[in-house]
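Let's practice the habit of predicting before peeking. Look at the sequence and jot down your guess about where helices and strands might fall. Then scroll down.
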Amino acid sequence: MTPVLAVVDGSLDESFGVGGIVTTNIANDFARGVVTQSDGKIVVAGHTLIGSDSDFMVVRFNTNGSLDTSFGTGGKVTTDIGSDDDEANSVALQSDGKIVVVGYTGIGSDADFAIIRYNTNGSLDTSFDSDGILTTGIGTGTDDYAYSIALQSDGQIVVAGYTYNVSNSDFAVVRYNSNGLLDTSFGTGGKVTTPIGSGDDVASSVVLQSDGKIVAAGYTHNGRDEDFAVVRYNSNGSLDTSFDSDGILTTGIGSTNDAANGVVIQSDSKIVVAGPSSNGRDDDFAVVRYNANGSLDTSFGTSGKVTTNITDDYAVSLVLQTDGKIVVAGTVYIGSNLDFAVVRYNTNGSLDTSFGIGGNVTTNIGSGRDEAISVVLQSDGKIVVAGHSNNGPESDFAVVRYSNSISNSNSTSWVGTQSITCPAPNPWVKEKLGFASSVKPVLVSAENTVGKTITQGSYDALKSSGVLFDTVSKKVSTATETLPIYGCKDKLLSGKVNQPIQFIAGGYTLQSDAHGYINTADLKWHDTNGVTLYTNTAAFMHTIKFTKTGKYVVVLTEQPDTSGGLIPTYGVRSIRFVININ
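Done guessing? Here is the structure:
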């Protein structure tokens, strides 16, 4: 037989929250940005609707998804800025651990950029604009909305969004010094606005190149519909004319509206942008890759463009793995509801079929609309997606963590697939055992190196644990005997703590003239304390996750198909995996 040991990418990380999912409620709450600290804690920013208006809201979670009670009040902080709505859209971490959150605040009849800096404990940082809170108007008596933030290595803060110019909106980028003062060396008094098309131009995401240039991505209205828009600025805020000749490029993808929501820079300086694209019926995930000069990268997808249809899909955020693969998060319509959706692409733009099902994962959280807004990678490679989930009357912050076999740091870990073949014993030992009809036992055990059983049980078609059950007479069989077990040499493999590892051992035929196929059943694996680690119900696919370091022996044992009423006249085979968990 040839069982396969494989890392499962895109599965929910059972060590986080409840089944990989955490929801947090204050009132009516909407998460918009997520970052991870160097200690593994997760910071999520958004807003909560308290009474008639909304306030900034920041929540910090421990690595297991529990609220970090050392932050704010019970892990949560809310900040009221003005008398109207205050909504946070993006969050970043400074090298000193301080948390910078950007969004907008309502000021009378218009809105202004709003930036808040928090200390590591969630208190307002009074060294930032004297009280930790800063607002910036760009136009005169117009709406200015900040959507994204990037931190320079010198501590300066770059914020992007849009400003309304009376007739329509333009890209807006503002740079601040580390103390909150406008950086007057940037643009005009620290501010830059860029008109692109004949209608609304909105910057949704901003990122910094290694040479200090600033790339903002969003959408522009071309008079008929919307296109992706990307603008590159020099470090002083002027347009970079080496980028598409004037610093501005637009890209149409689908038949109508296309809107870029996220942008990242590869190590080779190529620019990757993601968002939704309309195909005329509904929206698809869309990813476009540009060369450093702004031309479309024809080695990616079809002429630099990729679209992915699940149902009706809206891409919002993306992140790059260390191996160059692209992870895009957003929302998908499932029936009348919305669910989180994550798609992973290979470096050439093709779907990475080793991730989820055919390259994508969808996750249902609440009873209504679940919308993913932001994605980030942990240092261990796990994927964290934040957004909101409808709980019926209102929405909650929602954070989902997915397993991922690649580390996001420079450390190495076991990645990929290892196949082990255990030759069939010859000759087979023959013995007849009389069992009642329709008995289908499956025996799987996991032991530690001193032979202590972690879990061992027999399972039948009715999932009756620990017994052999006659599905016809409804009685427990009394004629149980142990068949001879033939084994092969231990195979040494490796894995990580809390990293799901999947055994795939199905569909192979036993060498016998009797009943020829093995059966599998739903399995629960346990740790040495008897705590359930993971449950997998897929036939021939069983997943185990170890919560402690050390060496373990996992024994996978065949059991035959007994649908004819008798155990076949041969023994069973066993394969042993010695797994070093670190």
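How did you do? Residues 555 and 575 are 6 Å apart (CA to CA).
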